Amino acid sequence: MTRTITCACGCGRVGRHHGRGLLASCWRREHRHGTLNGWPRTARPARDQLMRLADENIRGRIDDYIELREDHHVPLAEAAARLRVSTRTVTRWHSHLRAVGETYPWLFNHPATRDRKQAA
Fold first, then answer.
1. The dihedral of CA 86, 92, 95, 99: what is its sign?
2. Nearest 5°: CA angle at 119, between 115 and 120?
3. What is the dihedral of CA 87, 72, 96, 31, to 10 degrees?
4. pLDDT tens-digit readout, 25-39
5. pLDDT digits over 85-109, tens only?
6. What does residue 108 show for φ and ψ, rounded to 5 degrees?
7. pTM for the whole thing?
8. Alpha-carbon distances, residue 18 vs 24, 32, 38, 44 (angstroms)
């Protein structure tokens, strides 16, 4: 998913975002010169990405995923099949939960998470 931006390097060109607020040609130039780290990353933080999953139906499915994986030790592919979603979807959930699981109150209320915190 690309978006149209005005390049952050100051060249004034408008085009498709490549990364770090730069167009592809400017990104390559910065990379080639070793100055790419001077431009901040523009990727959405995992917390913001997980907020898209905040609707009630998906939260329930993620809770079911947590229960299958942590309480019943079901392999990822089998959990995906049981929840009728793709393996890629549960892989995304897993990544998001690892990145930001501690920041979501609805995750705190899940018995598996609560038990894990009490044991620590």
1. negative
2. 120
3. -60
4. 999 999 999 998 888
5. 999 988 888 877 776 654 444 444 4
6. -60, -35
7. 0.43
8. 5, 15, 15, 14
